[in-house]
Amino acid sequence: MDLILPDSGLLFWMVLIFGIVLFLLWKFGFPIITQGVEKRTRHIDESLRLAREAERRMQDLAAEQQRLLEDTRSEQTRIIREANTAREQILSQAREDARDEADRMLEKARTEIAAEKESALRDIRREVALLSTDIAEKVLRRELGNDQAQADYLGRLVDEMTRKQSRGQS
Length: 170
What we know:
Blueprint: H1 8-75, H2 81-143, H3 147-169
Helix pairs in contact: 1-2
């Protein structure tokens, strides 16, 4: 039954340590992570806004292009057949250029968004790793705060090394 139910002292210390770690994370870790995520979110939102603005500009350009096309058609009766052919070639090239530019801008915005997202994830992972290391360091300092605890820990390490060496030689 002792294997199933933990000792009350062990349970107390586990709950206490868990509470301390949770408090430290709540106090120091989560605000930093939240700020980083919010900063990245604002940057991504700004990038999306710029992409929408670029798309709106492209729609304006398309509307302007449509208006120009209608003006050109009204003048079509006064222009001879050769001028009409040249005009159609110029308009088709302008449409291609406009589409190419729109595609480039949208692709660039998508790439920037993906890069910012990846960068945000990397930053969050790095922050979590640093916080974990700091917390582990503080816990070890507290646990090994007196000379007797350090001596006991060093003794266990020496015993483990001796056992590993004796297994390796046999």
